[in-house]
Amino acid sequence: MPDDHSMQSQTKPSRCVAIIPARGGSKRIPDKNIRSFCGVPIIGRSIRAAQESGLFEKIIVSTDSAQIAEVAIQFGAEVPFFRDAELSGDKAGLHSVMADALRQLAIYGISPDFVCCLLATAPMVRAGDLRNGLEMLQQSGARMSLSVTEFPYCIFRALRHDEQGRAVMIWPENLTRHSQEFPQAFHDAGQFYWWDARRFEDNPTMFFSDCVPVFLPRSRVQDIDTLEDWEHAENLFQNLQHE
Q1: Do residues 154 and 171 lie in contact, with contact meaning Cβ atoms separated by under 8 Å?
Q2: Residues 133, 145: Cα–Cα separation, whole Å
Q3: What is the CATH number of the domain that holds 52?
Q4: Which of 78, 80, 107, 137 is deepest in the core (most CB within 10 A)?
Q5: What is the dihedral of CA 133, 134, 137, 140, to 10 degrees?
Q6: In whole angstroms, what is the distance from residue 23 CA to residue 107 CA?
Q7: Residue 198 placed within a domain
Q8: pLDDT tens digit string along 134-189?
Q9: CA 29 → CA 34, 226, 231, distances in Å?
Q10: Domain housing 69
């Protein structure tokens, strides 16, 4: 029969930390991470979803910008450190930023069981999706889980430009095949990534290693790289409020 100590260890909740990468200096969309999205700084919407999930011991924003830090703190996140310059440029990889944040947190004595990378520009992320992501990770025993959604069109019948500027099929052998003959294809929804923090490796090639997908409907997914993307995302968001 297990003793009291072992029973306590079995029921001890997992320590979860959210890390929101948000560097300054966006070029295509100025002040992208704190730009008003339907009346609220966009990073504030990610912070609110993390808070509403009830999962996180801490919600950390990794940034190089004092202005972003100020907004993040106003919404209830923490900024215990500033990101180094070499991790603040256009070519800084998300995996490297996460590895740096985990190292920084370890200095403060914070060693989570599970860590969630929640993107600052994911205004349609929902608390329930974050909970599903953690649950699927724990149940599967995988190294990570990530938000995904289906492509809106069969990618196996995709086209490209050839050297003469003509439209040609990338896989012409698929021309006469029906779309239902192909496997389901989906892509990164760009909202969140969960890791078993004890199995996180500082190795970018391990980013999508041993992961389970958390499916989201296309109506709640929009990559935001341009002002046109931003406007489309706001339209989607406003439509969702009337569901």
Answers
A1: no
A2: 6
A3: 3.90.550.10
A4: 137
A5: -100
A6: 21
A7: yes
A8: 999 999 999 999 999 999 888 998 999 989 899 999 999 998 898 888 998 999 99
A9: 10, 6, 12
A10: 14-150+185-238
Rounded distance, CA 86 to CA 62, Å? 13
Residue 55 backbone class (left: φ over 0; alpha: ψ -120 to 50; beta: rest) = alpha
Residue 98 placed within a domain: yes
pTM: 0.87
d(CA 60, CA 209): 24
Residue showing tokens 């703190």: 73
**First and final C-alpha spacing in the chain:** 51
Please give the Cα distance from 235 to 222 (Å, whole number): 11
* The total number of structural domains that make up the chain: 1
- Residue 14 DSSP one-character state: P
Q: Establish if 43 belongs to a structural domain.
A: yes
d(C-alpha 220, C-alpha 128), whole Å:
13
